[in-house]
Request: fold
Amino acid sequence: MKTTPKTLKRMLCPAALLATTMLYPAGAAMAQEASLDDVIVTAQKRSENLQDVPISIAVLGEETLEQLHLSDFDDYAKYLPAVSFQTYGPGVGSVYMRGVASGGDGNHSGSLPSVGMYLDEQPITTIQGALDIHLYDVARVESLAGPQGTLYGASSQAGTVRIITNKPSAAGFEAGFDVEVNTVAHGGEGYVLEGFINQPISDNVALRAVGWTSHTAGYIDNVQGTRLYPSSGIIDDNAALAEDDYNDIDTYGARAALKIDLNDSWTVTPSIMGQVEESNGFFGSDALVGPLSVTHYNPEFAKDQWYQAALLVEGRIGSFDVTYAGAHMERTFESSLDYSDYAFFYDTLFGYGAYFTDDAGEMVNPSQYILGRDDFTKDSHELRLSSPQDARFRVVGGLFYQNQQHDIFQDYKIDGIGAGISVNGRPGTIWLTSQVREDTDYAVFGEASFDVTERLTITGGLRAFKSENSLRGFFGYGDGFSSGTGVAACFADATTRDAPCMNLDKSVEEEDVVPKFNVTYNIDDDKLVYATYSEGYRPGGINRRGSLPPYQSDYLKNYEVGWKLTLMDNAVRWNGAAYIQEWTNFQFSILGQSGLTEIKNAGQAEVKGVESDITWAVSNGLTLTASAAYIDSELTENFCGFVDANGNPETDCPSPEAPSGTRLPITPRFKGNLIARYEFQFAGFDAHVQGSLVHQTSAPSDLRLAAAAITGDLPAYTLVDASAGIEAMSGWTLEAYVKNVFDEEAQLSRFAQCAEAVCGAETYFIPTQPRTIGLKFGRRF
Reply:
């Protein structure tokens, strides 16, 4: 085979550049040469230079994560312009990319996520959403925008976010720790303790272990107040629960990996990671009460604990690389949620409080709260083969299997109600959801690339999949409260925990194929352009309310052109992409009758956008980086809010809930950031100063016009962070930082506690953390 500059670059890239993993480098060597380091990514299931990969990828490398003090998803998502999200507190959030967001207000047993989350080679996207992983000793975060259905499957319909950890190395001992203290404006004080060790055990065996613990200060006040329930005249008082800064978080966790080189060809890496996140209070603010304040009437807390055990096997059979990646994950999310708004507004508007009596027939305080426990298990297995990367014709392909279960337990409590109106066998429970949802995916996938010439490459890929979704168990009232639903609708004995019987047992299966096609042209060794057509998918499923029909799969078609340019003798890196996406029969979740999630398909939408990032080594020590995305997303058919007998969305109606042309919610039209870092010598130390700015424009909070008018838009905001520090040759560092310098009250989500038409008078928003000032000391050995 002829060795061209292109093939030589591909051969040398993984071995020579594996240690360079940041997108925004500002190290001393770079500063002296005013040149940028190369970035290695594994987005296409192999190690490659970022500039050789014809995909729109944003990368936050290890040094960038540390320099910007990014420790969790909310932190790093603001520096990914294509990413938007909704959050309701720690461990409860939804991630979107490139405007593929339908909004809505569904809660449990909703659609599968449209963005896949990976920890190294293993998917960590649960049905409820992504794990909130504390970032420490992480090599990089890769954000792959656009459908990644060929290589990453169902939950990568709109994109994929990958967290790549540092791996064990037998090359030598390494260790370090970091200690941080901080204070939050309008709140309390926090701390972070982190450490890692890399210990060679022999020439071919190494262990890497990481641990962390943190306390995040609260800043939301639960203000003392009263509430009058009109049907009974009962006055509720939250004086016993009133507290300042009551939404604090304690997090602790660990990660360990053992790398064993069996021989020159085969390596085995077992690993395990676990984390516990305990939070108190509520993370929203109610403008009717005051800044950073609410008035809630029942205890609120959450405990999110999980672990994942994984096995990575890498080797060679002949000239092919073989990779097996398997994982088992278990996650438990326990919570207590105040639901008094639901009780108050349903009593005020409809007189529901009159139904809630004790055994003597006397009305009781109808205030509700929800005790929840969600148990998740997830098993995934992938086996793939890759041909030599330096060959003119290259292939990667394999088999994938995934099974995930969600054991849903939601106990809606009203203290003091009689046994006669409680769910059978559960005094004080007015409504119970006890269901088990199971989602199973099977897939065969592959991509093949061929160098037509030294400069022109074509790539084609397919993923054939089969998905199965089932939901069984119980939902509803006791038969003493309802004669037609809940226990009254049961047809079999209970099969789920603490349920009186079974009134739901449904399943659905689907299978299809999604393609990808790409053409890449290398203008020269430092510049390429590409064009891609790709598809992503999300399986359908069963509604939590079993009387509703199943919802269907939705698909995303992506037409994209992009560029990767390295300019000015490697002092400037400019990448970008423009795209049009067609979203077909997209799934839309709402809180329907009795506050249960209802999922329906909602017709067609189109997303058009441009995204770009640029990094410039300006001069000795000074680096500027900027990235931005412009997204225009809208319906191309009416959303009427109902489907036909076959589950197909109806689009011809006189008064659509959202007419054609309505903007899709959650995602701003523009989101961008700018980072400036200057490194210099000061009193014999390596010193630095850094500033960053993040801005995004406003966005609707809901697709439905009536609901959006009630909850209001997510306002535009600008956040500014700053830091300064020094580093000694002996390996210690000291840094001071300020996050949210101007104490901006940016709003991440807007919502009501139940359907907007009922509870919308009490609208909440989730604010960003107020101005936080911190001091961090670290040491490397």
